[in-house]
Amino acid sequence: MDKHFPLSKPPERILVISMRHIGDVLLTTPLIRSLQQAYPDAQIDVMVYERTAAILEGNPDIAQIITVPLKPNAVEYINIVRHIFRRYSLAVVTQAGDRPLIYALFASAQRIGLVPDRQTKAWWKRYFLQGWTEFDDVNTHTVIQFLRLMDVIEQPKHYALTTPEKTIAKSLPFKKYAILHLYPLWKYKRWHLKGWLSIADFLLEQGVNIVLTGSPAKDEVEYINSFHQKLPDQVVNLAGKTSLSQLTELISNALLFIGPDTGVTHLASATGTPTIAIFGPTNPVKWAPWPLGYASDKNPFARTGNQQVNNIYLIQGQGDCVPCYLEGCDRHRGSHSRCLDELPASDIKNAVSKILVNELTCVRKVYSAK
Hints:
This protein has helices at about 20-25, 30-40, 75-85, 100-105, 140-150, 195-205, 220-230, 245-250, 265-270, 285, 340, 345-370; strands at about 15, 45-50, 65-70, 90-95, 110-115, 130-135, 175-180, 210, 235, 255-260, 275-280, 305-310, 310-315. It is an alpha/beta fold. It folds into two domains: about 15-150, 3-Layer(aba) Sandwich (Rossmann fold); about 175-370, Rossmann fold (3-Layer(aba) Sandwich), CATH 3.40.50.2000. Strands 9-8-7-10-11-13-12 form a seven-stranded mixed β-sheet, with helices on both faces. Helix 2 (about 30-40) packs parallel to helix 5 (about 140-150) and helix 6 (about 195-205) runs parallel beside helix 12. The radius of gyration is 21 Å and the shape is globular. The termini are far apart.
């Protein structure tokens, strides 16, 4: 059940609080766009962690990005509060946690947000918000969950994600390429290297060049470098060498993107590039990439099975336990996941073939039109 809070007058300044990972922040952009469309004269600021701010770079709906440390000390915390104290007409909380709610309490006298259901110990948080919607971690896609806050204030919704502003990436020696993004933040979301090698060989056989991408994190760069050494010299390795805005440009110009359950796969989906998303323990109802052009309050993906919606080809690991919603078979982020360990490369190859056939069909149509 939700509590509606139609605003008596348009807010002049809005603070959206989104203190999660890069993918989660990107998934708030339809909400931010909806707020901007509903209140075009309002200044919209967004509070995020320092490490996620780049995903909002150049977003035309945002006036200011306020960055905060992951674990602020006392002095940093006081400075944050001073910066936001009662400066906003409306605070919008996109999480049900404690710290985002505390920041909202300081930021504005009017607050809406996500709250835990009444079965949890934190049900009382709803009393600090004028309007709210209950957080659903199982049956509602994250984009739809965030957009329910527009229902709370009784305003229209806009469903498209906004990518970072594109900047020119490093030049490539070819134009026809696929991007392979191997490395998720947590090991339990990782697909096996044998499968990645098989996919790389398959793409090269089809005449598609390969670009490897990854963050500058040391472990990730070493992992990608080790994989790169197993491939022909023509494969380009850009792991740790691009910003998010440059990566956005690279993905936008690619024939296709293949990646695990990670923030960059969400970014790929938002560019419109055909995106193959490899999922294991994670619930696709909640966390599947949001398809380009999808605009509905109905979840785009079902809980199980390989599926395609618009530009997203979701490939799910195998097993009766999938999705288990857990952090791998050993129940921690460094665990393996049997469903991904046993996922055959043939499932991904089938999706690649469909994408390449569609690409060839589009090229034929262009030449026929000429």
